[in-house]
Protein backbone atom coordinates (compact mmCIF):
# COMPACT_ATOMS: atom_id res chain seq x y z
CA UNK A 1 0.00 0.00 0.00
CA UNK A 2 1.45 3.40 -0.96
CA UNK A 3 2.35 5.74 1.85
CA UNK A 4 0.63 9.07 2.42
CA UNK A 5 3.90 10.82 1.71
CA UNK A 6 4.39 9.30 -1.77
CA UNK A 7 0.76 9.78 -2.82
CA UNK A 8 0.25 13.20 -1.21
CA UNK A 9 0.21 15.32 -4.40
CA UNK A 10 -2.25 13.00 -6.14
CA UNK A 11 -4.51 12.87 -3.08
CA UNK A 12 -4.74 16.66 -2.90
CA UNK A 13 -5.71 16.76 -6.58
CA UNK A 14 -8.50 14.23 -6.03
CA UNK A 15 -9.96 15.49 -2.74
CA UNK A 16 -11.87 18.76 -2.61
CA UNK A 17 -10.72 21.70 -0.51
CA UNK A 18 -14.00 21.86 1.47
CA UNK A 19 -13.70 18.15 2.26
CA UNK A 20 -10.14 18.48 3.51
CA UNK A 21 -10.48 21.87 5.26
CA UNK A 22 -11.29 20.46 8.73
CA UNK A 23 -8.37 18.02 8.53
CA UNK A 24 -5.98 20.69 7.31
CA UNK A 25 -7.08 22.98 10.13
CA UNK A 26 -6.65 20.22 12.72
CA UNK A 27 -3.17 19.52 11.31
CA UNK A 28 -2.17 23.22 11.51
CA UNK A 29 -1.76 23.40 7.73
CA UNK A 30 0.44 20.30 7.42
CA UNK A 31 -0.89 18.52 4.32
CA UNK A 32 0.71 15.15 5.09
CA UNK A 33 -0.65 15.21 8.64
CA UNK A 34 -4.08 16.25 7.28
CA UNK A 35 -4.08 13.24 4.94
CA UNK A 36 -3.11 10.96 7.81
CA UNK A 37 -6.04 12.34 9.84
CA UNK A 38 -8.35 11.82 6.87
CA UNK A 39 -7.15 8.22 6.49
CA UNK A 40 -7.54 7.63 10.26
CA UNK A 41 -11.06 9.05 10.12
CA UNK A 42 -12.02 6.79 7.20
CA UNK A 43 -10.64 3.69 8.93
CA UNK A 44 -12.31 4.57 12.23
CA UNK A 45 -15.64 5.14 10.48
CA UNK A 46 -15.32 1.84 8.63
CA UNK A 47 -14.61 -0.02 11.86
CA UNK A 48 -17.56 1.63 13.58
CA UNK A 49 -19.94 0.79 10.74
CA UNK A 50 -18.87 -2.85 10.88
CA UNK A 51 -19.92 -2.98 14.53
CA UNK A 52 -23.15 -1.07 13.82
CA UNK A 53 -23.94 -3.52 11.01
CA UNK A 54 -23.53 -6.53 13.28
CA UNK A 55 -25.57 -4.85 16.02
CA UNK A 56 -28.37 -4.10 13.55
CA UNK A 57 -28.58 -7.75 12.47
CA UNK A 58 -28.53 -9.00 16.07
CA UNK A 59 -31.18 -6.50 17.14
CA UNK A 60 -33.41 -7.24 14.15
CA UNK A 61 -33.17 -11.00 14.76
CA UNK A 62 -33.91 -10.59 18.49
CA UNK A 63 -36.90 -8.38 17.73
CA UNK A 64 -38.22 -10.87 15.17
CA UNK A 65 -37.83 -13.72 17.66
CA UNK A 66 -39.70 -11.80 20.36
CA UNK A 67 -42.51 -10.79 18.01
CA UNK A 68 -42.88 -14.37 16.75
CA UNK A 69 -43.28 -15.53 20.35
CA UNK A 70 -45.55 -12.65 21.38
CA UNK A 71 -47.97 -13.19 18.49
CA UNK A 72 -47.72 -17.00 18.84
CA UNK A 73 -46.71 -17.41 15.23
CA UNK A 74 -46.15 -21.14 15.67
CA UNK A 75 -49.79 -21.60 16.78
CA UNK A 76 -51.59 -19.31 14.33
CA UNK A 77 -49.38 -20.11 11.33
CA UNK A 78 -49.31 -16.48 10.18
CA UNK A 79 -46.08 -14.47 10.36
CA UNK A 80 -46.40 -11.59 12.82
CA UNK A 81 -45.73 -9.00 10.12
CA UNK A 82 -48.77 -10.19 8.11
CA UNK A 83 -51.20 -9.92 11.02
CA UNK A 84 -53.48 -6.88 11.27
CA UNK A 85 -51.54 -3.90 12.60
CA UNK A 86 -52.25 -3.36 16.31
CA UNK A 87 -53.08 0.15 17.46
CA UNK A 88 -56.11 1.00 15.39
CA UNK A 89 -56.84 2.37 11.94
CA UNK A 90 -54.49 5.38 12.24
CA UNK A 91 -51.51 3.16 12.98
CA UNK A 92 -52.48 0.68 10.26
CA UNK A 93 -52.78 3.53 7.75
CA UNK A 94 -49.38 4.95 8.74
CA UNK A 95 -47.75 1.52 8.40
CA UNK A 96 -49.38 1.01 4.99
CA UNK A 97 -48.08 4.41 3.85
CA UNK A 98 -44.51 3.53 4.88
CA UNK A 99 -44.72 0.09 3.28
CA UNK A 100 -45.89 1.64 0.02
CA UNK A 101 -43.09 4.22 0.12
CA UNK A 102 -40.49 1.48 0.63
CA UNK A 103 -41.68 -0.67 -2.27
CA UNK A 104 -39.50 -0.38 -5.37
CA UNK A 105 -41.18 1.48 -8.21
Descriptive overview:
With 105 residues, the protein is mostly helical. It folds into two domains: 4-70, no CATH class; 79-105, no CATH class. 75% of the residues lie in helices and 0% in strands. The protein is built from five helices and no strands. The protein has helices at residues 4-14, 17-26, 31-70, 73-76, 89-102. α2 (17-26) packs across α3 (31-70). The model has no long low-confidence stretch (mean pLDDT 89).
Question: What is the secondary structure topology, with strand pairs?
Answer:
Blueprint: H1 4-14, H2 17-26, H3 31-70, H4 73-76, H5 89-102
What's the number of domains?
2
DSSP helix fraction? over 70%
Beta-strand percentage range: under 5%
The count of helical stretches stands at 5
Low-confidence sequence ranges? none
Helix and strand string, N-terminal first? HHHHH
Radius of gyration: 24 Å
Number of DSSP E strands:
0
Structural class: mainly alpha
Summarize the structure.
The protein is built from five helices and no strands.
